[in-house]
Design a protein that fits this description.
single chain, alpha/beta, Aminopeptidase, 7-stranded mixed beta sheet, 7 helices, globular
Length: 264
Protein backbone atom coordinates (compact mmCIF):
# COMPACT_ATOMS: atom_id res chain seq x y z
CA UNK A 1 0.00 0.00 0.00
CA UNK A 2 1.26 3.49 -0.86
CA UNK A 3 2.29 5.50 2.19
CA UNK A 4 -0.63 7.59 3.39
CA UNK A 5 1.39 10.80 3.78
CA UNK A 6 4.62 12.57 2.90
CA UNK A 7 6.63 14.31 5.63
CA UNK A 8 9.34 16.89 5.09
CA UNK A 9 10.81 17.41 8.57
CA UNK A 10 11.05 20.97 9.83
CA UNK A 11 14.25 22.87 10.47
CA UNK A 12 12.40 25.91 11.82
CA UNK A 13 9.71 25.83 14.57
CA UNK A 14 6.84 25.66 12.01
CA UNK A 15 5.04 22.65 10.55
CA UNK A 16 2.45 22.99 7.76
CA UNK A 17 -0.20 20.26 7.70
CA UNK A 18 -2.10 19.60 4.45
CA UNK A 19 -4.73 16.94 5.16
CA UNK A 20 -7.12 17.43 2.23
CA UNK A 21 -5.07 17.89 -0.97
CA UNK A 22 -4.54 14.17 -1.58
CA UNK A 23 -6.30 12.48 -4.48
CA UNK A 24 -5.39 8.85 -3.95
CA UNK A 25 -8.31 6.42 -3.70
CA UNK A 26 -7.74 2.65 -3.50
CA UNK A 27 -9.42 0.75 -6.32
CA UNK A 28 -11.70 -1.18 -3.99
CA UNK A 29 -13.11 2.18 -2.82
CA UNK A 30 -13.09 4.04 -6.14
CA UNK A 31 -15.27 1.47 -7.87
CA UNK A 32 -17.95 2.04 -5.21
CA UNK A 33 -18.01 5.85 -5.49
CA UNK A 34 -21.08 7.48 -7.00
CA UNK A 35 -20.63 9.41 -10.25
CA UNK A 36 -20.92 12.70 -8.33
CA UNK A 37 -17.90 11.77 -6.21
CA UNK A 38 -15.50 10.11 -8.65
CA UNK A 39 -13.91 13.42 -9.68
CA UNK A 40 -13.25 14.16 -5.97
CA UNK A 41 -14.96 17.58 -6.05
CA UNK A 42 -14.23 18.42 -2.40
CA UNK A 43 -10.46 18.19 -2.72
CA UNK A 44 -8.34 21.11 -1.47
CA UNK A 45 -6.87 21.43 -4.94
CA UNK A 46 -3.15 22.28 -5.21
CA UNK A 47 -2.86 23.35 -1.57
CA UNK A 48 0.31 21.31 -1.10
CA UNK A 49 1.84 23.19 -4.05
CA UNK A 50 0.48 26.52 -2.83
CA UNK A 51 2.28 26.17 0.50
CA UNK A 52 5.39 24.42 -0.84
CA UNK A 53 7.46 27.54 -0.12
CA UNK A 54 7.30 26.50 3.52
CA UNK A 55 9.99 23.92 2.84
CA UNK A 56 12.28 26.48 1.18
CA UNK A 57 11.88 28.69 4.27
CA UNK A 58 12.87 25.87 6.59
CA UNK A 59 9.41 24.91 7.82
CA UNK A 60 8.23 21.33 7.65
CA UNK A 61 5.31 19.95 5.68
CA UNK A 62 3.07 16.95 6.30
CA UNK A 63 0.78 16.22 3.35
CA UNK A 64 -1.80 13.48 2.95
CA UNK A 65 -1.71 11.43 -0.23
CA UNK A 66 -5.22 10.01 -0.06
CA UNK A 67 -8.53 11.74 -0.65
CA UNK A 68 -10.73 12.91 2.18
CA UNK A 69 -13.31 10.48 0.76
CA UNK A 70 -11.11 7.64 2.01
CA UNK A 71 -11.06 9.22 5.48
CA UNK A 72 -11.07 12.81 6.68
CA UNK A 73 -7.92 13.48 8.64
CA UNK A 74 -9.35 16.71 10.04
CA UNK A 75 -12.16 14.99 11.91
CA UNK A 76 -12.23 13.43 15.33
CA UNK A 77 -11.75 9.65 15.38
CA UNK A 78 -15.06 9.35 17.22
CA UNK A 79 -16.72 11.36 14.41
CA UNK A 80 -18.06 14.16 16.60
CA UNK A 81 -19.37 17.10 14.53
CA UNK A 82 -17.19 20.20 14.29
CA UNK A 83 -19.86 22.79 13.59
CA UNK A 84 -23.56 23.24 13.99
CA UNK A 85 -25.61 22.53 10.90
CA UNK A 86 -24.54 20.66 7.78
CA UNK A 87 -21.09 19.17 7.59
CA UNK A 88 -19.19 16.07 6.58
CA UNK A 89 -18.00 13.24 8.76
CA UNK A 90 -14.93 11.13 9.38
CA UNK A 91 -15.79 9.04 6.32
CA UNK A 92 -18.01 11.34 4.24
CA UNK A 93 -21.24 9.90 2.90
CA UNK A 94 -22.26 13.10 1.11
CA UNK A 95 -20.31 15.64 -0.89
CA UNK A 96 -20.28 19.30 0.09
CA UNK A 97 -23.22 19.75 -2.28
CA UNK A 98 -25.24 17.00 -0.62
CA UNK A 99 -24.75 14.38 -3.32
CA UNK A 100 -24.01 10.76 -2.34
CA UNK A 101 -20.38 9.75 -2.14
CA UNK A 102 -21.18 6.05 -2.59
CA UNK A 103 -23.38 4.05 -4.90
CA UNK A 104 -26.47 2.99 -2.97
CA UNK A 105 -25.73 -0.10 -0.91
CA UNK A 106 -21.95 0.24 -1.30
CA UNK A 107 -21.35 2.44 1.74
CA UNK A 108 -18.55 1.34 4.09
CA UNK A 109 -19.44 -0.70 7.13
CA UNK A 110 -18.41 0.20 10.66
CA UNK A 111 -15.69 -2.46 10.43
CA UNK A 112 -14.33 -0.94 7.23
CA UNK A 113 -14.30 2.53 8.76
CA UNK A 114 -12.30 1.16 11.71
CA UNK A 115 -9.85 -0.39 9.24
CA UNK A 116 -9.45 2.95 7.45
CA UNK A 117 -8.75 4.65 10.76
CA UNK A 118 -5.86 2.27 11.37
CA UNK A 119 -4.55 2.39 7.80
CA UNK A 120 -4.84 6.12 7.05
CA UNK A 121 -5.98 8.30 9.97
CA UNK A 122 -3.71 6.95 12.69
CA UNK A 123 -0.42 7.07 10.74
CA UNK A 124 -0.99 10.71 9.76
CA UNK A 125 -1.72 11.75 13.32
CA UNK A 126 1.15 9.69 14.71
CA UNK A 127 3.49 11.52 12.33
CA UNK A 128 1.93 14.89 13.14
CA UNK A 129 2.22 14.38 16.87
CA UNK A 130 5.79 13.10 16.67
CA UNK A 131 6.97 15.97 14.48
CA UNK A 132 5.38 18.58 16.72
CA UNK A 133 7.02 17.01 19.76
CA UNK A 134 10.39 16.93 17.96
CA UNK A 135 10.05 20.61 16.99
CA UNK A 136 9.06 21.62 20.52
CA UNK A 137 11.96 19.66 21.99
CA UNK A 138 14.42 21.38 19.64
CA UNK A 139 13.09 24.95 19.73
CA UNK A 140 11.17 25.13 23.00
CA UNK A 141 7.86 25.64 21.16
CA UNK A 142 6.14 24.52 17.98
CA UNK A 143 3.87 26.26 15.47
CA UNK A 144 1.32 24.32 13.42
CA UNK A 145 -0.46 25.74 10.39
CA UNK A 146 -3.26 23.54 9.04
CA UNK A 147 -3.70 24.56 5.38
CA UNK A 148 -6.95 24.20 3.44
CA UNK A 149 -8.97 25.61 0.56
CA UNK A 150 -12.59 25.49 -0.54
CA UNK A 151 -14.92 26.86 -3.17
CA UNK A 152 -16.14 30.38 -2.46
CA UNK A 153 -19.77 29.29 -2.47
CA UNK A 154 -21.07 26.06 -0.94
CA UNK A 155 -24.71 26.79 0.03
CA UNK A 156 -25.10 23.57 1.99
CA UNK A 157 -22.23 24.52 4.32
CA UNK A 158 -22.45 28.31 4.59
CA UNK A 159 -24.54 31.25 3.39
CA UNK A 160 -23.36 33.66 0.74
CA UNK A 161 -19.76 33.93 -0.38
CA UNK A 162 -16.82 32.97 1.78
CA UNK A 163 -14.16 35.62 2.52
CA UNK A 164 -10.97 35.06 0.54
CA UNK A 165 -8.83 34.35 3.61
CA UNK A 166 -10.22 32.52 6.63
CA UNK A 167 -8.07 32.17 9.73
CA UNK A 168 -9.16 29.87 12.53
CA UNK A 169 -7.89 29.84 16.10
CA UNK A 170 -10.72 27.96 17.84
CA UNK A 171 -11.91 31.31 19.15
CA UNK A 172 -8.46 32.16 20.46
CA UNK A 173 -7.90 28.87 22.30
CA UNK A 174 -5.43 27.17 19.92
CA UNK A 175 -2.65 29.79 19.78
CA UNK A 176 -1.11 32.69 21.65
CA UNK A 177 -2.99 35.97 21.35
CA UNK A 178 0.21 37.57 20.09
CA UNK A 179 0.60 35.02 17.30
CA UNK A 180 -3.03 35.39 16.27
CA UNK A 181 -2.72 39.18 16.20
CA UNK A 182 0.45 39.00 14.10
CA UNK A 183 -1.20 36.61 11.64
CA UNK A 184 -4.25 38.84 11.24
CA UNK A 185 -2.01 41.86 10.69
CA UNK A 186 -0.40 40.02 7.78
CA UNK A 187 -3.80 39.27 6.24
CA UNK A 188 -4.68 42.97 6.40
CA UNK A 189 -1.72 43.68 4.15
CA UNK A 190 -3.16 41.60 1.29
CA UNK A 191 -4.81 44.35 -0.74
CA UNK A 192 -7.93 43.31 -2.60
CA UNK A 193 -8.68 40.26 -0.47
CA UNK A 194 -11.25 39.94 2.28
CA UNK A 195 -10.39 38.14 5.50
CA UNK A 196 -11.98 36.94 8.71
CA UNK A 197 -10.83 35.47 12.00
CA UNK A 198 -12.86 32.59 13.45
CA UNK A 199 -15.70 32.92 10.97
CA UNK A 200 -17.27 29.85 9.38
CA UNK A 201 -13.96 27.99 9.76
CA UNK A 202 -12.68 28.30 13.32
CA UNK A 203 -10.38 25.31 12.98
CA UNK A 204 -11.04 21.63 12.56
CA UNK A 205 -9.95 18.69 14.68
CA UNK A 206 -6.26 19.22 13.94
CA UNK A 207 -6.24 22.83 15.09
CA UNK A 208 -8.45 22.20 18.09
CA UNK A 209 -6.71 19.02 19.22
CA UNK A 210 -3.06 19.98 18.78
CA UNK A 211 -3.25 23.70 19.54
CA UNK A 212 -2.23 23.85 23.21
CA UNK A 213 -0.54 27.19 23.90
CA UNK A 214 -0.04 26.35 27.57
CA UNK A 215 2.07 23.39 26.40
CA UNK A 216 4.01 25.51 23.86
CA UNK A 217 2.21 24.20 20.77
CA UNK A 218 0.35 26.92 18.83
CA UNK A 219 -1.99 25.99 15.98
CA UNK A 220 -3.89 27.97 13.35
CA UNK A 221 -6.07 26.89 10.45
CA UNK A 222 -5.85 28.76 7.15
CA UNK A 223 -8.76 28.23 4.75
CA UNK A 224 -8.31 29.99 1.42
CA UNK A 225 -11.12 30.54 -1.08
CA UNK A 226 -10.12 28.74 -4.25
CA UNK A 227 -10.84 31.77 -6.43
CA UNK A 228 -7.70 33.37 -4.98
CA UNK A 229 -5.49 30.97 -6.92
CA UNK A 230 -7.77 29.11 -9.35
CA UNK A 231 -10.16 30.00 -12.13
CA UNK A 232 -12.43 28.10 -14.52
CA UNK A 233 -13.54 24.56 -13.92
CA UNK A 234 -12.03 22.69 -11.01
CA UNK A 235 -9.42 21.29 -10.76
CA UNK A 236 -7.85 23.39 -13.51
CA UNK A 237 -5.07 25.55 -12.15
CA UNK A 238 -4.36 29.17 -12.98
CA UNK A 239 -0.58 29.52 -12.98
CA UNK A 240 -0.60 33.32 -12.75
CA UNK A 241 -2.97 33.36 -9.78
CA UNK A 242 -1.13 30.49 -8.13
CA UNK A 243 2.19 32.28 -8.44
CA UNK A 244 0.75 35.43 -6.87
CA UNK A 245 -0.93 33.47 -4.09
CA UNK A 246 2.31 31.65 -3.35
CA UNK A 247 4.10 34.95 -2.83
CA UNK A 248 1.36 36.00 -0.43
CA UNK A 249 1.42 32.80 1.60
CA UNK A 250 5.22 32.91 1.74
CA UNK A 251 4.95 36.33 3.36
CA UNK A 252 2.42 34.86 5.79
CA UNK A 253 4.80 32.01 6.61
CA UNK A 254 7.64 34.45 7.20
CA UNK A 255 5.43 36.42 9.58
CA UNK A 256 4.63 33.28 11.56
CA UNK A 257 8.26 32.23 11.68
CA UNK A 258 9.33 35.68 12.90
CA UNK A 259 7.12 35.20 15.97
CA UNK A 260 8.31 33.53 19.14
CA UNK A 261 6.72 33.10 22.58
CA UNK A 262 8.72 36.09 23.78
CA UNK A 263 6.54 38.21 21.48
CA UNK A 264 3.29 37.01 23.06
Amino acid sequence: MTASYHLQPAKAPLLVSVPHAGTGVPRNIMRRLAPSARCLPDTDWHVDELWAGAIELGAGMLAARHSRYVIDLNRSPDDQPLYEGAGTGLVPMETFDGQPVYIGGAEPTAAEIDQRKQAYWQPYHDALRAELERIRSKHGYALLLDAHSIRDQVPRLFDGRLPHLNLGSNNGASASAGLISSAVDQLREWAGFTHVLDGRFRGGYITRHYGRPAEAIHALQFEMAQSVYMSGSLPERDDARLKKARSLVNAFLERLMAWSPGHA
